[in-house]
Design a protein that fits this description.
The structure is a homodimer of 321-residue chains. Chain A is an alpha/beta fold. Chain A is 36% helix and 20% strand. Chain A contains ten helices and twelve strands. In chain A, strand 8 and strand 9 form a beta hairpin. In chain A, helix 1 runs parallel beside helix 2, helix 3 crosses helix 9 and helix 5 packs antiparallel against helix 7. The longest helix of chain A is centred in the C-terminal third of the chain and has 25 residues. Chain A is globular, with a radius of gyration of 20 Å. The C terminus of chain A is likely disordered. At the A-B interface, helix 7 of A face helix 7 of B.
């Protein structure tokens, strides 16, 4: 039973979670704290050190062989630094080096949260057994990660799969990232709600203007709500089709709060995909809901720190048939 | 000197070329025929068999260790078949099996022409030494291929890097592929000329309406010609930025006839790229002209058939830093 656990750290703009994950993907110990996202760099780091300290206090800690970190991005895996958009106190913050102060000599792997979600879905979720897949989160933002040749492709800096900020509408609205017509600018939850409101949808008496409320209205037939989800679906379809044309994927896994809309999103998404994924080698592409839920961050961070699994020999990893 | 050559075959809609290529990328023997593109499947195959027969007739043939095929797409490398858009007689044509009738027991590798161009630029041209790159041809169509982790990423079917048919304008004009707002629909040579003409550009007395003529007019300051290249540049920039966000590339290599426009294309392309490639990990992306010219098809087909080169150990190929 020695060295069969990985310490996983999931750093987001809202919460910092940590856990001990075994080689079957089971989480044995789980701790979390709110992210003090508006505080200075050291206050945020104190929260990370605190959750890691709780893990170290467990008798299971002696079985830990590696540390995996998934962080809100952008990250720079080669430098070991993170600059989460929603944690302004951290800019090129040396998270790997600082985590090592707590975890000692253990190897540490850092990836972006999109890559972590993809690693989790590939290991334990909807992309299990897939050779080539895009896994994405559609929520307050839109993120993602790529499985290529049977394994995670984090890219040199850990940010690959960043589908939220590819432009599918080159003359479209300016995005906070500086680009135009990004997938996120059209398909994120807040943009779905914004567009529905602008086109005449009115929230219920509770005043709930979330994407979930728009989804409920769409299910009830509200035309502005339906149209807003259809527009989001077109943007997602164009982005997924682009990914398929560029790297050849067999499956797109879609998770996050907006995916919780179910058929309101997936029916127009699959319809739009037939319009944009037209070439012979991408026509078989399937779109499926994610399975890992909120555990994806921890499980994916753990996956990144585990050694290559037996079903991933080098020949597959190298992309050879 | 034994077994140091590869037989390379480059099948396009206009010509079929073949050559013997050494392990340094030098072409020792080169033969070509026009593609009888409007003829039936067997007539096209006869032309392939003829060029291969010329290679076999050479005393150098005894040194050949493998056969590499780059073909106009779509191809299906896993099935060994090709369905070139501009050769209607070939649909799921078993090119690999048919080539083997001439080349015997030698191993045969098939990739798409975009992947072949990328392999050539990575081996001998503008992407030499790059770990992650997109190489593209902007000509009558727009094609491309990807280098990921220091080696060619053809994808399971050999079509990866298909940047010409990703949508950068989801409400845009219908493309012959069935999609909308594809990069090719905006940035190919014929579309550059079409848009310039529609906006008031008038060709010279010779009536030349090629993209090269539009480029000459743009250099002379014709506003419709300048604007048409700028529009093409924006579409290419959005596509290149999307590729960078999805797979992390450090360089985009642009070749083909339209790239011959030089600054008329590259200046607005680099400017537009700053608008679309905004995230920290893609901002350093460079765009450079291709170097391999018309040899790219043969050299790239040869590269696909060569064993992995020493500078490409498995750890790099697997995408690990």
């Amino acid at each position: 039973m020695q060295n069969d656990l990985v310490a996983a750290l999931d750093v987001g703009g809202t919460k910092i979670a940590a856990g001990l994950v075994d080689t079957d993907g089971r989480i044995h110990l789980r701790v979390r704290r709110p992210t003090p996202a508006r505080e200075d760099a050291e206050t945020v780091m104190d929260a990370v050190t605190a959750v890691l300290g709780e893990l170290r206090g467990s008798p299971l800690w002696t079985r830990v062989s590696a540390v995996g970190i998934g962080s809100a991005g952008p990250v720079d895996a080669s430098a070991g630094t993170v600059s989460p958009v929603n944690v302004p106190g951290w800019r090129a913050f040396p998270l790997v080096e600082r985590v090592r102060l707590t975890t000692g000599e253990l190897p540490v792997e850092l990836i972006g949260d999109g890559a972590a979600m993809a690693a989790a879905e590939h290991w334990q979720g909807a992309a299990r057994g897939c050779r080539d897949a895009l896994c994405m989160v559609v929520s307050t933002g839109v993120g993602g990660g790529l499985i290529i040749g049977g394994r995670l492709h984090p890219g040199p800096t850990g940010n690959a799969g960043h589908i939220g900020h590819i432009s599918v509408d080159l003359d479209g609205d300016l995005c906070p990232c500086g680009g135009r017509g990004c997938v996120e600018r059209i398909a994120s939850g807040p943009n779905i709600a914004r567009r529905a409101l602008a086109n005449g949808w009115r929230p219920g008496p509770g005043g709930d203007t979330s994407a979930a409320a728009v989804a409920a209205a769409a299910r009830a037939g509200d035309p502005a709500a339906v149209a807003s989800f259809e527009r989001a679906a077109r943007a997602l379809a164009a982005g997924i089709a682009a990914t398929a044309g560029l790297v050849e994927i067999e499956t797109a896994v879609v998770g996050g709060g907006v995916a919780g809309a179910g058929d309101v999103l997936f029916v127009p998404l699959r319809r739009a995909l037939r319009e944009y994924a037209t070439l012979s080698f991408v026509r078989g592409l399937t779109v499926v809901p994610a399975l890992m839920g909120t555990d994806a961050g921890l499980v994916g961070a753990a996956a990144a720190a585990l050694p290559a699994r037996p079903e991933e020999p080098a020949a597959i990893a190298a992309g050879r048939p």
